[in-house]
Amino acid sequence: MTSQPRTLFDKLWDAHIVTPETEAAPAILYVDLHLIHEVTSPQAFAELDARGLPVRRPERTKGTLDHSTPTLPANANGQLPYVNDEARAQVDTLRANCRRFGVELFDYDSPQRGIVHVMGPELGLTQPGQTIVCGDSHTATHGAFGALAFGIGTSEVGHVLATQCLLQRKPKTLAIEVNGALPPGVGAKDLILHVIGVIGVNGGTGHVIEYRGSAIRALSMEQRMTVCNMSIEAGARAGLIAPDDVTFDYLRGRPRAPQGDAFGAAVEEWKRLRTDEGATFDREVRIDARDIQPTVTWGTHPGQVAAVSAQVPGGDDADDAKARDYMGWEANAAVAGRAVDVVFVGSCTNSRLSDLREAAGVLRGRRVHPRVRMLVVPGSEQVKREAEREGIDRIVRDAGAEWREPGCSMCIAMNGDLVGAGQLAVSTSNRNFEGRQGKGARTVLASPATAAACAVAGEITDPRPYLTTQPAPHSAAQLETV
Amino acid sequence: MQPLTEVVSRTVVLRERNIDTDQIIPARFLTTTQRKGLGKHAFNDWRALADGSPNPEFPFNRAENAGARILVAGRNFGCGSSREHAPWALTDLGLRAVISAEIADIFRSNALKNGLLPIVLDGAIVDELLDQPGIELRIDVAQRSVTLPDGRVAHFPLDAFARTCLLEGVDQLGYLLKQDAAIARFESTRLEQHTQEFRHAR
User: Fold this and answer.
1) Which residue in the set A47, A56, A235 is minimally distant from B79, CB to CB?
2) pTM for the structure as a whole
């Protein structure tokens, strides 16, 4: 449509403009796929009710239950152990709204229910070239497919339900180019924590990020989702990766992806979704993958990161001091060696099959340290089934960890899965804010491998020795007697 | 939405940078299906001391701040979760404006839909405001200006559409609904090429 070189973001934006922006009014942007869950949708449906409006395109909205849902199974009477009646009512409200407005809901009886950002890709609902929104800031996850995906508020959920559109000002673009090979034992979570550490917790504000470079191309689809998922933790509403064969191979055969000849035709379209040679970004940041080590957060926002082998910063920065105080660190303390109370493997960042395999690879033949409580929460019913088929549930249970039902669980900690006040949790989730995992809880964000290694060691530790060595034949039995 | 033309009020100050929406309204209060009544949970975990009693030092617990309508906060206010419960909680406290050197994107968008004016000012001026809690400011939406007690005037960015919406109480959903013809046109043209994806998505 234009000969001027365009970024991937420009192409996605241009293709969805109903009305271009002017000085007087924002653009009207068309939404291809709208995902909803129980927490941020009830007030939006109430707005439709108040105005007597239908859902404009019910087939473009898909619902799931994930945030308020228990991760323990139903009791003998078939009752799910909700944290309170309000949580149960919230789930019932979404169920009723989906029924009344004709929206497909992946309910408890669906073998495909899952955390919204695990389920969409897994089903092939998420596709390159789409605009995807959800009342959830981790919607950026879907950008891993070359979709423009971002979180919205509940008023905007109402806008999309009623009009399939949003009023949007065009954001700026930020290229984050990561080149070189990640060192052995270093993964996508370490990469994105490192990136956020480099650009800062507000480094992406006002921008859409495109992740580029050989280190990004080398990532699997699930790893790319981990990277894009945390774009918002640097302040960027959306993060993108251009689709390629890795993307197309992932989508082929997914139940909601195009099938047969239509898939081939779609791939030909999707191949055009890349930043043109000569297109420019508003900002560019280059990172060398070889510099990245196993990385964790030490503070109370995702930009306060350190290599596991490094120290917590000293200095008199007021925010660093406040974070050290909340987290219980001395200035310049070594990150490794800090005692751990809880380990959580799960969340839309790291609850996919490859994440669970990574954790299980560390846990196999080992025991979770006696002082540690460890939860492993698969991201969807499908992930749970596949993991159980591989025996991952048994490895988790044999190690002394809990194997739960799918949901957001301890990441947002609104379903009763909580970390206690003052306890230190190593979590594969995305936010280490004060009280995020429970009032007074202290969170250290880490990769699945690091989290599992910390569970075994009972303290923050470098995962690499656990990845390269298998436990001695009798060590599991010996540890059981501790 | 009620029109918002002017806010004249003393300020409440939270100096912290990167105040995330989990601090503004912790997740365990999100099981509600209502918009109203969240003010009592705003900054819940900062309001109480370890023994559960109210922290007398916390600004929103102090009598002199009752009725204040302007919050001045450290840089990158409202980062994190997209929960609109955050501006709902703040407006339920009576706030109508938040001033910071930087405001997170999603919070900013949500605030504007709830008559809560997000104001980004130059860092040096925000630092001054952070150092003087309780001073009276006058915010003029039409002029996009904040007047300090000594008469100095600072201007803030506010796009024309957001400004009109605030001044006239324009309901954004109502605005979008009026674009029905353009939306229908878009659907019938571009989407014809893309029906395949949703033929399978049923």
Assistant:
1) A235
2) 0.96
